[in-house]
Amino acid sequence: MAGEFGAVLRRLREDAGLTQDELERRSGVSVSTIRGLETGKRSNPRMTTVQQLADALALRSEDREELLGAAVPGRRGGGAGTTGEAEASTAGAGALGAGAAQAGEPAVAPPAVQAAPTEAAEQLARAVAARWQREEEQRRIQDPYPLPVRWKAACETLTDHWANIRRLPPGAPSGPLDLSGRLEGIAETYRSIPSGRLVVLGRSGSGKSVLALRFVLDHLRSRTPAEPVPVIFSIGAWDPTAVTLRDWLTEQLTRDYPGTAAPGPGKVSLASALVDSGRVLPVLDGFDEMADGLRRPALEALNATTLPLVLTSRPAEYAAAVEETDVLTSAAPIELVDLTLDDLDHYLPRTTRKTDRSDPAAGAWQSVLKKLREPSPDRSPAPLATVLSTPLMVALARTVYSDTPEHDPAELLDTELFPGVRELEEHLLDNFLPTVYRRSRPGTRGWDPERVQRWLGHLAGHLTELRTPDLAWWRLGHGLRGSTRTLVTALVTALVIGLVDGAMAAGFSGSLAGGVLDGAIVGPLAGLLFGLVHWFTYTVTGKDVQPSAVRLRIRGRPETTTWRAGPRLVIGALGGAFFGFAYGFVVGLLHAFSWNAGLSSALELGLVDAIVFGLVFGGAAGLSFCLLGLLETPLDIVSAVSPGSVLRADRRTVLTQLCFWAPVFGAAVGFGTGVVVDLLQGRLGRLVMDPAGSLMLGTISGLGGALGYTLTLTAWGQWCLLTRIWLPLTGRLPWAVAAFLDDAYQRGVLRQAGAVYQFRHARLQSRLAQGRRRG
Asked: Of 13, 355, 400, 576, which shows the fewest CB atoms inside 10 Å?
């Protein structure tokens, strides 16, 4: 079959009028590889190579199918041949095939079952490519060109048996793979690993995250429909002792791509279907950022699965986890190597402005780089050369000196000012923020550098305490203690509902004193009850108030969303009944005591009101939540997701829910009061409720219930209470938090990872957290 492929390739190349050298320039495939394929000396071509050649030849669909058919035995005609041999030598089909075959799943699912996840995978691939392309541009990785990240094979003690990595049968001779390479070849290196498992090791700032980003983009550029979609996950946020790997991947996928929350086949979400069917290739970035004590169980959990994956880590943390348990099964590890002085000579001068008209090539870095090449008396490398051996420090040096003409990098050679590596690194880290906040960006406000340092220090300390690299806007309030969050939530909710109730009651009754009294009763009671609901729902359980992954839609709703109505009916009815019972009991007692009734009469009146209001509020809340569930529909997978877009989408959803909840719940309370009073008339004694009272109760309940639900049980409501009011009020964050975070992202202090922010690097986060503790 290899000879057939060579003959087809040679014929198509000659038909296109191309030489082997010209085809190399167009496709990026070396002449030696093309020659070997055409002569039959190279067998089993990788699918990515075939795809590159087909693209370079600009083949028509029938010619492309012929070339692919010649490369993969059994592709054409549905013959007895299988693709197993090709998959064993290529990770292109092997990555997905291994995951499905070892999980005991059929190679090809029935069309009805396969259609939805397959289409979702293609949409996911487009969304992932668009996101990380924007992120690469924001990080200026291609400006003026990517730093030359290179790697070599890691030490054997961190490497599994090569027979396992190469998926060889028992007894077959095995040997190591040549895994050395550089940034532009990372996708090809991954596809050369039959097991589809790669570990990227590198010291702090060596370019692991950039390599992961580049891998995703390059893999997607040459991806075939049969291959899984590479998705970056920050593994530092995973607690393997609390949630399984597949469940965590599903949660993260739903968070960053809300459209995957839509129901898929088998009554599971599309995210779960994509993960379980092997259509997602996890790129697990930041194994070393996991909390102490979690890396060993994480490695054990990874070994318990057969998922193809890419894992990045610092060598020491990975080696310690391996020492405690075992290497990552079937994984080929590579280790990033340091930048050289030649790399610096080529890169840094091209990042500076031309200041000398007589010598356009001259720049601020020439003298510094020349000095670094001079041998020291003890032949040891200069501290600055050691510091600039990682892409992180080169990027910081570029920001502090190349992008700021008044700063002279020659000061970095001052051994009295910077006697060692640590002092130089701290200098670059400490001067990064003052440099990027040196002047206001067009269209943005200016920020006080001292306050910026304090605010970012609070955020860094917040992430350190939560043991996660993900800066999620809906979790910013978690920097407070759980009791403080609940207390602030209850107090603000009581104040808001009390003011609304008092104003509405005064308007209906025409008595200001009566409105103030009613608001003074209802506000604290509502704050207490909603605070308790918040406490038991989130604080006690340790759960987060997650942003909504749905929108309300009246027309064109998919029928698959109706399953939410049943659970919402039960939860709403129980919650409303609890609130109504407590509210009615307290109101009954207050009315009885205002009439100077005895204790037994007060208790009797309180129980009667509790039963009436419990039934009314329970039925109204159950109906309202049920209708909300019926109107919800998932977001699109291809919709762009960023922290700002998720915040805006959640705000729109919550405000829509509020506008829907208030009239529906109010009408249900107002109408339900008359119905319940008529049904219980005589059974609980003489009940009195006039139409005006029902109207007032319904209006106040609708507004108060909607506001209470919004403030205590939605992510946007908690954002408004804690992040927009309490944290700025106490000086921890600015008042314009969203604008501040977006500005920090635009300046390169933060980076985006889907729906959350992260600090540009863990070293920067750690340095800011240390400064906060010192302060």
From this structure: 355
Task: Assign 680 a pLDDT band (cuts: 50, 70, 90).
Answer: confident
pLDDT value for 91: 34
719 is written with which tokens? 């954002």
Tell me which residue of 745, 763, 773 sits closest to 135, measured CA to CA: 745
Query: What tens digit of pLDDT does each residue of 519-569 get?
Result: 887 888 888 888 888 888 888 887 888 887 666 665 544 444 444 566 667
Length of the chain: 775
Residue 97 C-alpha from the chain's centroid: 27
How is residue 754 annotated by DSSP? Answer: T
Residues 305, 245 contacting (CB under 8 angstroms): yes
Tell me the C-alpha to C-alpha distance, in Å, between residue 549 and each of 112, 261, 394.
Answer: 26, 7, 39
Distance CA(595)–CA(605), nearest Å, equals 11
Q: How far apart are CA 640 and CA 207, in angstroms?
A: 26
Distances (CA, A) of 151 to 165, 190, 288: 18, 13, 18
Q: Give the DSSP H/E element, type plus range, for residue 284.
A: strand 280-285
Amino acid at 775: G
Q: Which residue has the higher pLDDT, 521 or 753?
A: 753
Quote the Cα angle for 94-95-98, to 5°: 70
pTM for this prediction? 0.75
Q: Which amino acid is at 299?
A: L
Strands 632-634 and 750-753: unpaired
551: which strand partners? 633
Can you tell me the distance from the alpha carbon of 432 to that of 412, in angstroms, rounded to the nearest whole number? 14
**CB under 8 Å to 600, separation ≥6 — which residues?**
none
CA 176 from chain center: how many Å? 35
C-beta of residue 82 within 8 angstroms of C-beta of residue 73: yes
- The answer to whether 506 touches 515, Cβ cutoff 8 Å, is yes
Taking the C-alpha atoms of residue 172 and residue 443, their distance in angstroms, rounded to an integer, is 65
CA angle 285, 165, 6 (to 5 degrees): 105
Tokens for 453, please give them. 């340092």
Q: Strands (DSSP E) along 503-625, which ranges?
A: 550-552
Distance separating the N- and C-terminal Cα atoms of the chain: 70
Name the more confident of 297 and 625.
Answer: 297
**Nearest one of 583, 478, 569 to 533, comparing CA atoms:** 583
Asked if residues 123 and 292 have their Cβ atoms less than 8 Å apart, the reply is no
419-429 pLDDT, tens digit each: 999 999 999 99
| Euclidean distance between CA atoms 87 and 97, whole angstroms | 7
State whether residue 578 is helix, strand or coil. helix
- Lookup: tokens for 432: 């990064």
At which residue do the structure tokens 């054990």 appear?
300
Cα–Cα distances (Å) from 269 to 250, 260, 262, 534, 653, in that order, read 9, 7, 5, 27, 20
- Give the span between the Cα atoms of 708 and 583, in whole angstroms: 14
Q: Give the count of beta carbons closer than 10 Å to the beta carbon of residue 728.
A: 17
Phi (first) and psi of residue 422, to 5 degrees: -60, -40
Q: Angle CA(738)–CA(744)–CA(746) in degrees, nearest 5?
A: 105
Q: Is 466 left (phi over 0), alpha (psi -120 to 50) or beta?
A: alpha
Sign of CA dihedral 342, 347, 348, 352: positive
**Rounded to 5°, angle at Cα 467 from 466 and 472:** 60
Amino acid identity, position 53: L
